[in-house]
Design a protein that fits this description.
Distance between the termini: 100 Å
Largest sheet: 5 strands, mixed
Number of strands: 5
Number of helices: 3
Strand content: 15-25%
Strand order of the largest sheet: 1-2-3-4-5
Shape: rod-shaped
Radius of gyration: 34 Å
Structural class: alpha/beta
Amino acid sequence: MSDPVTLDDIYALFQRSQEEADRRFAEADRRAAESKAEFDERIAKSEAIAAQANQAVNSLSSRWGRFVENIVAPAALRLFQEQGMAVQEVYQRVRSARGNRNLEIDILVVDDDVAVAIEVKSRLTQDSIRQVLRSLEQFKQAFPHYASYRLYGAVAAIEIDKDVDTYAYNQGLFLIQ
């Protein structure tokens, strides 16, 4: 027959049970802290990789954009002369920072009284057409020495979203594809 269970025995049992629970909670807390540290480290590495990838993509698209501009610029003079415009000069990356206006034109084709502002895109979308139209609205204020010129707008692109070519024409823009 076994000895009767005393109050001290029950207290000792609860004490051991509490110590074991405390040990397990401490172990769980330690593991959670390690997991959080590993997670934070992985997030930091992922953010660094994403930043590097973003920088690489931006560099590539910048180079791609310049490549496309360098293809379009020499052809632009000939294309607009064939349209009957007496343009004689081509400028790339024309910038103005007059007042609060900060405007860049990828390619500007000009003569004595005609200017054609060309925006070059690798992919042409309706949003990029809207951006070109806003730039054209600001052009003569940003470049006041062209204020008396007849101004035309053009977009050049390698890839054009569906129906964007029609949208560009309807907005009065030349399209170079």
